[in-house]
Design a protein that fits this description.
By secondary structure, the protein is α/β, with parallel strands linked by helices. The chain folds into 2 domains: 2-37; 76-180, Chitobiase, domain 2 (2-Layer Sandwich), CATH 3.30.379. Helices cover 35% and strands 28% of the residues. It has 3 helices and 10 strands, in the order H-E-E-E-E-E-E-H-E-E-E-E-H. The chain has a 6-stranded mixed β-sheet with strand order 5-9-10-8-6-7, covered by helices on one side. It has a 4-stranded antiparallel β-sheet with strand order 1-2-3-4. Strand 2 (44-49) and strand 3 (52-57) form a beta hairpin. Helix 2 (97-112) runs parallel beside helix 3 (168-180). The longest helix is centred in the first third of the chain and has 36 residues, at 2-37. The termini are far apart.
């Protein structure tokens, strides 16, 4: 009788060890798949790559600092770029490293879409030797303005990103998401 009890214990212990090993392997496998899968928003899959979110939209990969659900506080109007050339305008006295970064994010996305971007000033004071543009011009302008509000709207031939210096990266991501059709 003792031999049967010992055999039952050994079988039970063996089965227990096998169950633990199999469940560990399955848990690790599913955990890996979940991390590799990323996050899906409006049918677009986002993967984290170091400190950026990367998504394949249309015919290319685009990098973002924020996911669409992290920029919901940015008010925006939908818009379209109807030209193969756009002026990126800024107020020279408001330009700082944050605005430079926001400008570069929008510039990069436009160029990836085959839209030529030309840097311009929206005010003459302290403007270097680059074009001076406003919303009444015949060409499309994306204008960066420092403000207490964080919003994107259309005015004549301008798409205006009116943002605080601290939130310009979120405004630029919002602009890029609208431009790419990720948010509507």
């Amino acid at each position: 009788m003792k031999k049967k009890d010992n055999n039952k214990k050994k079988v039970f212990l063996g089965i227990f060890i096998v169950v633990i090993m199999v469940s560990s392997i399955l848990g690790y496998t599913f955990k890996e798949d979940k991390e590799d899968f990323g996050i899906v928003f409006n049918g677009v899959q986002f993967y984290q790559n170091q400190d950026k979110w990367v998504a394949y939209v249309g015919n290319g990969y685009f990098a973002f600092d924020y996911l669409p659900n992290e920029i919901e506080e940015i008010q925006y109007e939908t818009f379209q770029i109807n030209s193969n050339k756009v002026y990126l305008a800024y107020v020279p006295t408001e330009k700082n490293v944050n605005f430079d970064y926001g400008l570069s994010k929008v510039y990069s996305t436009l160029n990836s879409l085959g839209i030529k971007s030309v840097l311009a000033c929206s005010e003459e004071e302290n403007c270097p030797d680059i074009p001076l543009v406003d919303c009444s011009n015949e060409f499309q302008v994306v204008s960066f303005i420092e403000s207490e509000d964080n919003k994107i709207y259309k005015e004549d031939n301008c798409i205006i990103l009116e943002c605080t210096s601290d939130e310009i990266s979120k405004c630029a991501d919002t602009f890029n998401y609208v431009l790419l059709g990720v948010i509507k």
